[in-house]
Write a sequence for this structure.
């Protein structure tokens, strides 16, 4: 990770790049060839698009809500240290404990220590992007602690030994028939004769997890919002698994990114209008829980908040890139993205897929790996993501900015064919004599490689250019040559 | 607990914000981002609060004006949209409410046998007409979770309701019970008085005390996790019954 202007040692253990993850273009090529995957994604994303548009159109002041949300988030980021300290003081005052983790390894170690301290060897988990990001489940497993995912889609992913492919619906790449098959083979207590009716599948998950909820000693959650003014945490969900995890266990551990903070309680009137409509196209999601420290006689006796940096301060230091920290993880940008719809979430090689992932992952992890360096290019820059974003993140702007960073990072290291070509063309364009010679050569060479007036494939090292695009054949005679031939 | 991680994160935030605010400063110079100005904590708090108050909020406080709309009817319609069963007590007064409660709970008891949980502070008059066949379980002392799982349902009041979104909000005070009570049993009857209905989120949140735990409930438990299509009925109560009363 590179954060040249920011002092302080580099943190260890960032977000895991999925092992052996290829760069986006090659991962996407495999995914696009999977016709079942494409059918599943097209079906799901198209269904939600129309519904989201309807839910948004219902509010005449959507743009004003969006601008207020943007302003609140930008303000919070500009005073992030102040608000974090305020949150810490208020959580502590309400009986909670606050921990700070600079990197993923540190966060995972804190959680593992707390679980052990509670005398438990298992946890029930609410779906949480922060713990996906830190690879908490794998870290706990290495420590002999079992993490049980309780969100239906996360459960499908966990049972299927799979990876999440969507922020809101991690199993979006699976259709109902595939889910039935996973339940039938991987869930020991799946009812006999289980059908692929979504209602029946949901009922199977309810029965499967019931006992785990009722006997859980430790719950692990993230949070959608943390309110500095009051020390309250907010979890937005649908199924009730979140309520189970934050209410029934004796110990609750919440791992929360430092950018999830909001200054005050009243800000929820803005964000709870925007989030459900953007994410599931509902006026309101079925359940939202808020809690402030410990409530004697109601819910957990021990509450721990783990505040996670893990690269967020690097993003904060980037004037253009920092807007990604406004993200409220609604996933509207995934659902409208033509690239996501075709390539699917796995191709992004990160817990954060889609347009927002293409600007978050390279900022949290840096652009040094081929997978991360390819992400800012995984977009047509059509701007649909920006249009639907409820906190007005200008994703195309950030993508272009990050592309420049990737190119800059490459420039420092190696000589690429692309760079050689551009530096050569710079020299040619500066000299009328060289340009005329080049145009003559191009006219000749172009005719050799072109078929029906198009150049479709160039020999290496120029093949990189024609892999994804073609070009018109250069004319046999340049304008300058024509001018001097006919006018002199 | 790591004091160093805390210091490190705060220092990185201050440096990052300083750098973002001074894009043309020499990062290695004496006033560069490595040495942001540090004032007292109180100054920072006052600066942040003043800037926060100045934020522009041009959105509507309510999308339906209570003076021009029947807010209670809007609430009933929106809650029913998400498959809550919504009924209005036909007449004002405690007797009519008690009769309506008795009818709903008797139907539930006939369908799914088992005791009904009653939270502390529930008005006794709500249960005045209950038929003799229904067993009540008080949550005093607190019932274990496994015991709650054997209940056929729960009856509560609420703190606030939101018309625009069809949401009921529990603050788990008197007549509402601790959070597990309205979570584990599979049937929840909630009584909502007209004066508890706020037009929209802004008014609703202003009526709440953030120090309390809250549960916002919009319809029965549901999921969109299979093909992004909403289906009702996962871990929370699969039956949500709302009784509106003057």
């Amino acid at each position: 990770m590179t954060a040249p202007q920011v002092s302080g040692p580099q943190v260890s253990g960032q977000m895991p790049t999925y092992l052996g993850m290829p760069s986006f273009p090659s991962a996407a090529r495999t995914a696009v060839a999977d016709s079942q995957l494409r059918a599943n994604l097209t079906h799901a994303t198209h269904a939600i698009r129309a519904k989201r548009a309807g839910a948004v159109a219902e509010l005449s002041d959507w743009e004003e809500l969006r601008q207020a949300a943007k302003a609140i988030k930008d303000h919070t980021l500009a005073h992030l240290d102040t608000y974090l300290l305020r949150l810490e003081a208020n959580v502590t005052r309400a009986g909670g404990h606050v921990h700070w983790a600079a990197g993923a390894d540190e966060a995972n170690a804190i959680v593992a220590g707390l679980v052990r301290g509670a005398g438990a060897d298992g946890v029930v988990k609410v779906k949480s992007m922060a713990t996906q990001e830190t690879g908490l489940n794998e870290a706990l497993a290495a420590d002999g602690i079992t993490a049980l995912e309780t969100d239906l889609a996360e459960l499908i992913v966990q049972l299927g030994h799979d990876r999440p492919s969507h922020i809101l619906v991690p199993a979006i790449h699976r259709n109902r028939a595939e889910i039935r098959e996973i339940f039938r083979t991987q869930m020991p207590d799946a009812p006999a004769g289980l059908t692929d009716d979504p209602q029946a599948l949901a009922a199977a998950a309810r029965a499967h997890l019931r006992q785990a909820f009722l006997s859980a000693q430790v719950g692990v959650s993230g949070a959608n919002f943390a309110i500095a003014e009051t020390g309250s945490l907010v979890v937005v969900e649908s199924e009730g698994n979140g309520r189970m995890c934050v209410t029934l266990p004796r110990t609750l551990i919440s791992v929360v990114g430092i950018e999830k903070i909001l200054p005050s309680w009243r800000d929820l009137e803005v964000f709870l209008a925007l989030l459900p409509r953007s994410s599931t196209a509902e006026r309101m999601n079925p359940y939202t829980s808020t809690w402030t420290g410990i409530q004697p006689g109601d819910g957990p006796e021990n509450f721990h908040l783990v505040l996670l940096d893990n690269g967020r301060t690097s993003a904060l230091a980037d004037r253009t890139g920092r807007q990604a920290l406004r993200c409220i993880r609604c996933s509207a940008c995934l659902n409208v993205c033509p690239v996501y719809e075709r390539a699917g979430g796995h191709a992004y090689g990160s817990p954060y897929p889609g347009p927002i992932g293409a600007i978050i992952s390279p900022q949290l992890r840096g652009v040094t790996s081929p997978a991360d360096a390819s992400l800012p290019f995984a977009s047509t820059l059509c701007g649909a993501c920006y249009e639907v974003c409820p906190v007005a993140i200008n994703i195309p702007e950030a993508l272009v900015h990050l592309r420049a960073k990737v190119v800059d990072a490459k420039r420092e290291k190696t000589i690429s064919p692309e760079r050689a070509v551009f530096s050569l063309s710079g020299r040619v364009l500066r000299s009328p004599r060289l340009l005329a010679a080049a145009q003559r050569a191009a006219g000749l060479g172009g005719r050799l490689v072109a078929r029906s007036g198009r150049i479709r494939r160039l020999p290496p090292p120029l093949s990189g250019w024609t892999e994804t695009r073609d070009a018109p054949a250069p004319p046999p005679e340049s304008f300058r040559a024509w001018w001097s031939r006919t006018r002199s | 607990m790591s004091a160093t991680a805390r210091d490190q994160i705060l220092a990185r935030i201050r440096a990052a914000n300083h750098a973002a605010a001074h894009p043309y400063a020499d990062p290695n110079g004496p006033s560069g981002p490595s040495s942001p100005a540090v004032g007292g904590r109180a100054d920072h708090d006052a600066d942040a609060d003043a800037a926060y108050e100045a934020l522009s909020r041009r959105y509507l406080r309510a999308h339906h004006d209570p003076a021009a709309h029947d807010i209670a009817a809007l609430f009933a319609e929106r809650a029913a949209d998400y498959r809550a069963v919504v009924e209005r007590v036909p007449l004002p007064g405690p007797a009519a409410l008690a009769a309506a409660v008795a009818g709903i709970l008797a139907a539930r008891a006939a369908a799914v046998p088992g005791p009904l949980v009653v939270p502390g502070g529930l008005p006794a008059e709500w249960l005045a007409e209950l038929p003799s066949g229904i067993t009540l379980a008080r949550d005093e002392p607190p019932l274990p979770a496994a015991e709650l799982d054997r209940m056929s349902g729960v009856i509560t009041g609420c703190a606030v309701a939101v018309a625009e979104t069809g949401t009921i909000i529990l603050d788990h005070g008197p007549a509402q019970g601790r959070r597990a009570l309205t979570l584990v049993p599979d049937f929840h009857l909630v009584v909502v008085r007209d004066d508890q209905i706020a037009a929209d989120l802004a008014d609703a949140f202003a009526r709440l005390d953030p120090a309390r735990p809250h549960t916002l409930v919009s319809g029965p438990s549901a999921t969109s996790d299979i093909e992004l299509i909403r289906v009702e009925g996962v871990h929370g109560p699969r039956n949500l019954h709302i009784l509106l009363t003057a």
Summary: Chain B touches chain A through 88 residues (CB under 8 Å). The two ends of chain B are 52 Å apart (CA to CA).
